[in-house]
Amino acid sequence: MIEHVPDQIDLRSDTVTQPTPGMRRAVADAEVGDDQYGEDPSVNRLQEEVARLLDTEAALFLPSGTMANQVALRALTRPGDDVLVPTGSHVVLHETGAGAANAGVQFSAIGDRGVFDADAVRVGIKPPGHIVYPPTTLLVVENTHNRAGGIVFPSVMLSGALNAAREHGLAAYLDGARLLNASIASGRSPADLARGFDLVGLSLSKGLGAPAGSMLAGSAELVARAHRYRRMAGGAMRQAGILAAAGSYALAHHVDRLADDHDNAQLLAGELLRGDDIEIDLGSVQTNIVVFDLVERRGVPDAESFVQRCRERGVLLNAFGQRTVRAVTHLDVSAEGCRAAAKIMRAIADGARS
Ligand SMILES: *Cc1c(COP(=O)(O)O)cnc(C)c1O
Predict the structure, then answer these.
(1) Which pLDDT tens digit goes with each residue over 222-237?
(2) Where are the domains of the chain?
(3) Closest alpha carbon to 71 in 194, 198, 158
């Protein structure tokens, strides 16, 4: 039997998912009210669910993960502060310079490939009270780390880094856009992974498959501050329960199935490695992201042309560097789709044109 493979296999991101029929029903049935009066029951419910999930006092619903990151920066820093971030972080590379424009902070990247240990934190912190150095006031962690290939921050290293930050009076922010992927992959609870952070961001519109929305969770006091900065950013909404209902649905139905996305990423990586034109650090394929390199050899295209040719054959990807490409698995791609995509990708990497 020939299994059905869709005409287009979209591996650009886990943001491309369509709401499922069940999610659409939850949206249609959502009770709503004016959230700026605190009267949207669906938003309130989602905020309570996420606070419970992450074991925090409170949580706030925002339109996007970028806004969650930006609001967190505002809530935890002052203009002129220095913020320690992992290399290749979303907050530095994917937010069009917003950290500088909104919070007025500068970033110092520490560690390697998205992770860092306690020493890297200590070395990164500028000498406090110094006449020339900016005050380092915040540590950002990205778990999972997108550009490093969806890797999970190793837990012992993480607690060391957080302790070092605390010893020096830094606040800590977790960009957990894909925190539930980290939880499923590591077998640790979301609350466990969120512990030790002042604020935690969590995206509903990535692997969880909701059409929009992210959360910020933390103490009641910090969430109240975040509430103000959300308004300041123009992110306060009205009958937002229409969106929040999709988020609640995703938390109830789409968390355990992230394991399928992780299996599919493994499958995709394994299939890609069957040729010798693509290199992948298999150790980095821990969740739903496969970042791979096209080898430097005659006939093997660079990332731009590879992505272009794949698109012509119905496989959608993102170039992440000169010879680096990212593929992301999600709700709307099957194992069969990954196999079919890998076959096309291998042929194109090989210089074959059919
Ligand atoms: C996608 C992403 C965000 C931002 O989410 P948007 O909803 O697209 O603004 C933040 N951090 C990380 C690590 C992400 O991958």
Answers:
(1) 999 999 999 999 999 9
(2) 9-16+257-349, 21-253
(3) 198
